[in-house]
Specification:
heterotrimer; A alpha/beta (about 270); B mainly alpha (about 450); C mainly alpha (about 500); A: Rossmann fold; 10 helices; globular; B: about 450 residues; mainly alpha; 3-stranded antiparallel beta sheet; 3 strands; disordered N terminus
């Protein structure tokens, strides 16, 4: 039996129960506190966006979710982050396995200087997700299709990924991240380095992705958050100020700080 | 549905992950192993140098009261310097022997050694030591003077533990009976092992007398070499760098120069030696084996290094300073000489010191221009003599000693290395201190 | 007057010119420097340059031309029959040179008068004794032909030198006067001086080219002479190296090339894995304190002069190997007869190259952008997987360049192989046997007692040229590879 069940998962388009549950998360860079007591529930089959002015800690929190902050020596994380009930900071857990379940796309497209095929195949190969070459071929094709770029690159799978345009490169990075069939996809300002047309393509893609993944996106553009997400969290000066349905946050926020941000008085 | 990675709990570490983590651990170990091997090699090298070289700084001496007998040294009795000069070192050997016999009597030591073996204990440099002393002031003849003489290299080797009685059983240079005698003399304090200043300041000696060999003259040779290198390469290097960095237009000519310089920096040093031989010695007929030729060759070798580091220093001065000077109406030349150069000076100096340290340790080119195999016996007294008379240099002297199979010379080679490394350590430390002290973060 | 004397006098004149013209220029504006175009120092410098430079250039060129001309004329003076096979022309000429230098010394000492030497009719009695006591080395008794030739040379040199000296002073004074003419307030002294300075700076820069040219030309020249005496096909394609004092030397480079490449290969085998893994660990894994200590310590290995490594190979490492592998040794095998061998020199050379490979690789690895690492970690790769599958492939061109540069360094190394590798030239395979290299033979052929013009000596130039070409080729290749493949992740 092929390990392909993830492809045929039933899609549930209404936002469901929590995938990620964060409680009292604090992050310190040496003595400076970057995140203060953040608690939030992130649901599956939905796109959650983190918004806020620069330096408010949203990217820092995002990087906590897949323990990328581990790579920074001076960074200290306290609190609890549960992924499907398991604390991801438990010492028994290997971050390497965690990151196969929680994928990440970065601000500036960073395809490896390898062929398109090798870029997508990298994750499945190191995690041993494919037994034969044809399995791997299928994973690559499905990932590229999921990332809405298959038609554009299917004839140039062995050419270098760095030769593509910016928007194409970012979609390759997205395809690469979903090739390991993660449950959650983290995206750190994925469109900020792209031109408007590429941005539109990626935003369309994000909406399609929510069929199969739980997506968390950090964005500095409120319009983008309004366009793509169902739930929004507003961060300010290291604290989570307000979290709720996107529509409510942008039309009728509870907290005055949120209102100040969306009307442009701060940030 | 049971094997997919994401329906498993994160607490289940899959076999694949275990393997990968094991591979990770192995990789780290390789890295640590590699560094350890490198550091171990450094340790082995350092301990070899210290263990084998420090003994060169100590030497065995014998103290003797020598009667400067008129009957042997000044037969005519008229203290005529020219006549006394005619007495060669051979003539001084008998008084040396007498002194030996005297000291044996004084301490009531008996020995079965014959004349030749008895005299053979003392270094062959002893007679000329006495002769020089007498010629300094001929009125000293007739007095009894206390001398400290070097002991023959083989005896010295015995004292330092290199030879045993068995190892000299078949040797014609030393015998077990001599060792016995030396032990007795050691007990009464006539023979002692002392710090040997002559090793540091004295001249090299011939094959027969490793105990008298010193590195002093070679040090002076190295000094003159470095003088030539400094005087030639610093101005030339800085001038060339200024031109290339500040004034040259980007055309094919300057491209060629740049490529040439970076290639020259990677040319093997022996090729420079060949150049020195072919051009400086054969074509220009400069005197062979002299520091001036060696200095010219080393200058050509060091020039690319100095140019590269000077250009880096010049580049690091921010354009805002240049703009400020130009904005006030200074010409380009004035900007460079009044502002850019002084600010780049610490970096230039550091680079020069490092380049010169490299040149100090070079021996291959010196081999070819003849600064090897020359037994430098006299300290040069004037600058032109220092530059133009044949000499050796420290690394060349070390090589020369290394070639002679006598372990006493090998010991001296290691001792010379210690001295050379002290110089290099000082120069590199100076460069680092300079860099730290004057480094600016723009 | 000797050359130094004139030179120093010109320097003094130039300095005087500086002060005088500066003073005079100031006088023309009655001390008000604001009325001058340039600062006073530039007027002084202008004079200094005009007084000193043309005269010095004249000195140099004249001396050069003079020595060539005089040499030619003196050569013509030597009678034809005097030149024999035992006493070829250049040997005679060097005797003549020595003798005329000795005559100069005698004149300086006052033992002999210059006039006497120049006067062809006067006999010089006891000249040999006088020369000896002045410390001039004489190979044999002086033949009259040589004596008259050296006297002629002495006379010609004295004449030419005095003309040269007077001419130089004349030019210098003229230059000074010309500069004085220009020392007016409107004269744009600074611009002139700056142009001269620029010219000087440019000259310094072209010196680098002249050096390269000098290297190549001098080697080519002598190498061509060698190829005139010995067929180049045999040199490049023959298989034996056996120089002999009598005729019939076998001089081929291939056995030497084999030794060079074999030893370099061993050196790379030691230094590349250790250097690369060290660099990887230090840049990816090591904490700051460890890196701060280990990196400089490894760099020390690079600063140690090669003579130290050579002595270490000869007196410590070699005997250690022999203890294990030699006859009567620990393992009871007889693989190694001398302490000098391929492994002795190769391993020690590897030690020396470790920091070279390590620091080059370190730079290259650090140049790989952090975003690639983030991308790999984000996908759940371990650190070693990231290094092996992402960073090293991205850094590969640079690393290959570093290996090529290390190979070039190993091939050109001299001291370690001279002391540690031995003198045997053959196509041996046993790494525990001695094997010689190109560099070793260059040293031995040029420091022996052979005549300079014999093929056995000149072969060293052909060897040197080949060595230069090989190392140059490797360096250029390394540069090309790094540059061509660097655009990958831009």
């Amino acid at each position: 039996m092929k390990d392909q069940t993830y492809l045929d998962r039933e899609s549930n388009l209404t936002p469901g129960i929590s995938k990620i549950s964060a409680k009292n998360v604090n992050v310190y860079y040496d003595d400076v506190q970057a995140l203060k007591d953040v608690s939030v529930e992130i649901g599956k089959n939905a796109v959650t966006s983190f918004i806020g002015p620069s330096g408010c800690g949203k990217s820092t929190f995002l990087r906590c979710l897949n323990r990328m902050n581990d790579t920074i020596d001076i960074c200290k994380v306290t609190g609890q982050i549960l992924l499907e009930g398991e604390d991801i900071y438990d010492p028994k857990i290997d971050p390497v396995q965690l990151r196969a379940k929680v994928g990440m796309v970065f601000q500036k497209p960073n395809p490896f200087p390898k062929s398109v095929y090798d870029n997508i195949a990298y994750g499945p190969k190191i995690h041993g997700l494919a037994n034969t070459k044809s399995d791997l071929d299928e994973i690559v094709e499905k990932s590229l299709q999921r990332a809405a770029i298959w038609d554009e690159v299917k004839d140039r799978l062995s050419s270098p990924a760095t030769g593509l345009s910016g928007g194409q490169q970012q979609r390759i990075c997205i395809a690469r991240a979903i090739a390991t069939s993660p449950d959650i996809l983290l995206m750190d300002e994925p469109c900020s380095a792209l031109d408007p047309i590429a941005t539109a393509q990626v935003e369309e893609l994000i909406d399609e992705l929510r069929e199969n993944f739980c997506v968390v996106i950090v964005t500095h553009s409120m319009q983008q958050a309004a366009r793509v997400s169902q739930k929004t969290a507003f961060f300010h000066l290291g604290s989570l100020v307000e979290f709720g349905d996107t529509e409510k946050i942008f039309t009728n926020p509870n907290d005055p700080r949120t209102e100040s941000y969306i009307t442009g008085r701060i940030g | 549905m049971t094997e997919t990675s994401h329906t498993n709990s994160l607490f289940n570490v899959s076999d694949k992950t275990k393997n990968r983590n094991a591979a990770e651990r192995r990789f780290r170990i390789y890295g640590i192993l590699a560094i350890s091997i490198g550091l171990l090699m450094l340790l082995v090298l350092a301990s070899t140098i210290i263990l084998r070289g420090t003994s060169a700084f100590q030497q065995t001496f014998i103290t003797l009261d020598v009667d400067l007998l008129e009957s042997k040294l000044d037969k005519k009795g008229n203290r005529n310097v020219d006549d006394i000069k005619k007495v060669s070192t051979f003539g001084y050997s008998p008084i040396l022997l007498n002194a030996m016999k005297k000291v044996l009597e004084k301490h009531e030591i008996r020995t079965s050694l014959k004349k030749k073996a008895l005299g053979g204990i003392i270094s062959k440099s002893a007679p000329s030591q006495i002769r020089d002393f007498v010629l300094e002031d001929v009125n000293r003849i007739g007095q009894t003077v206390e001398f400290k003489f070097l002991v023959n290299g083989w005896i010295d080797g015995y004292i330092k533990g290199r030879y045993s009685r068995e190892s000299v059983a078949n040797s014609k240079f030393a015998s077990a009976e001599q060792f016995d005698l030396i032990d007795q003399l050691l007990e009464v304090g006539v023979v002692e092992k002392k710090f040997n200043f002559d090793f540091i300041f004295g001249a090299d000696a011939s094959d027969q007398r490793p105990e008298a060999a010193g590195i002093g003259v070679a040090m002076v040779g190295s000094f003159y070499l470095m003088l030539v290198v400094l005087v030639l390469s610093l101005p030339l290097g800085v001038a060339a760098s200024i031109y290339l960095e500040e004034f040259a237009k980007q055309n094919i000519f300057t491209d060629v120069i740049e490529v040439t310089i970076s290639n020259l920096a990677a040319v093997p040093s022996i090729v420079f030696g060949i150049l020195g031989l072919a051009v400086f010695i054969n074509y220009m007929h400069l005197p062979q084996s002299t520091p001036i030729v060696g200095g010219l060759v080393l200058t050509l070798m060091t020039l690319p290094t100095i140019i590269i580091s000077t250009r880096a220093s010049l580049k690091s001065v921010p354009p805002s300073i240049r703009d400020a000077a130009l904005g006030l109406g200074a010409s380009k030349m004035q900007t460079v000489f009044h502002h850019v150069l002084p600010l780049a000076a610490p970096g230039i100096l550091t680079g020069t010191i490092i380049g010169m340290a490299q040149a100090l340790g070079e021996s291959a080119p010196l081999l070819l221009i003849g600064m090897i195999g020359y037994v430098a016996t006299n300290m040069p007294t004037t600058i032109s003599e220092g530059l133009l008379s044949p000499n050796s240099a420290m690394p060349a002297q070390i090589y020369e000693w290394a070639k002679r199979a006598d372990p006493a010379f090998i010991e001296r080679a290691w001792g010379g290395i210690i001295i050379l490394l002290i110089f290099l350590l000082t120069m590199n430390t100076m460069a680092v201190i300079l860099r730290r002290r004057f480094e600016r973060r723009w | 007057m000797a050359l130094n004397g004139v030179f120093y006098s010109l320097m003094i004149l130039a300095f005087l010119a500086f002060f005088v013209s500066r003073f005079l220029t100031l006088k023309t504006v009655k001390g008000d420097i604001r009325r001058l175009h340039s600062r006073p120092v530039y007027y002084g410098l202008n004079s200094l340059f005009l007084t000193g430079f043309p005269a010095v250039i004249l000195l140099i060129f004249w001396s050069f031309a003079q020595s060539i001309l005089i040499d030619e004329k003196v050569k013509q003076q030597i009678p034809e029959n005097f030149i024999t096979e035992d006493a070829p022309l250049n040997l005679i000429m060097s005797e003549v040179d020595r003798l005329s230098e000795g005559l100069k010394q005698l004149v300086d000492q006052g033992t002999l008068s210059a006039a006497k030497i120049k006067n062809e009719d006067s006999e010089l009695f006891g000249i040999e004794d006088k020369l000896e006591s002045a410390g001039v080395f004489l190979s044999s008794s002086i033949s009259p032909e040589v004596l008259s030739a050296s006297r002629a040379k002495f006379a010609m040199e004295a004449f030419g030198s005095s003309i040269r000296n007077w001419l130089a002073i004349l030019v210098s004074v003229l230059g000074f006067l010309w500069s004085l003419k220009n020392s007016t307030a409107e004269f744009r002294a600074r611009n002139h001086v700056e142009r001269i300075t620029l010219f000087l700076l440019g000259t310094a820069a072209t010196l680098a080219i002249f050096t390269s040219l000098g290297i190549v030309l001098s080697m080519i020249f002598e190498a061509l002479r060698f190829f005139g005496m010995h067929p180049w096909t045999d040199f490049f394609f023959g298989s034996t190296w056996a120089p002999s004092f009598s005729a019939g030397s076998e001089l081929s480079i291939l056995p030497l090339l084999w030794g060079t490449l074999y030893i370099s290969f061993v050196a790379l085998l030691v230094s590349v894995p250790i250097g690369l893994y060290s660099a990887i660990y230090l840049s990816e894994y090591a904490s700051k304190p460890i890196r701060a200590i280990a990196k400089p310590l490894l760099e020390i290995l690079a600063g140690i002069p090669t003579i130290v490594y050579g002595l270490f190979a000869l007196t410590t490492f070699g005997p250690l190997l022999r203890y294990f592998f030699g006859d009567g040794g620990f393992l009871g095998v007889e693989w190694m007869s001398d302490s000098r061998s391929v492994i002795t020199a190769g391993v020690v050379m590897g030690m020396m190259l470790i920091p070279f490979v390590s620091s080059l690789s370190d730079d290259i690895i650090n140049a790989v952008p952090q975003s690639l690492r983030d991308g790999s970690y984000g996908l759940g790769a371990t650190q070693s997987e990231t290094v092996r599958k992402v960073i090293l492939p991205a850094a590969l061109p640079g690393i290959i360049g570093a290996i090529l540069l290390a190979a070039s360094r190993a091939i050109g190394e001299t001291m370690i192989v001279v002391l540690g590798a031995g003198a045997v030239a053959k196509f041996a395979g046993n790494p525990l046997e001695a094997l010689t290299t190109i560099t070793t033979r260059i040293v031995s052929q040029l420091t022996g007692d052979l005549e300079f013009d014999s093929p056995e000596t000149l072969v060293a130039f052909a060897l040197g040229l080949t060595l230069f070409t090989i190392t140059l080729g490797l360096n250029v290749l390394a540069l090309y590879i790094v540059r061509k493949y660097r655009e990958q992740y831009e």
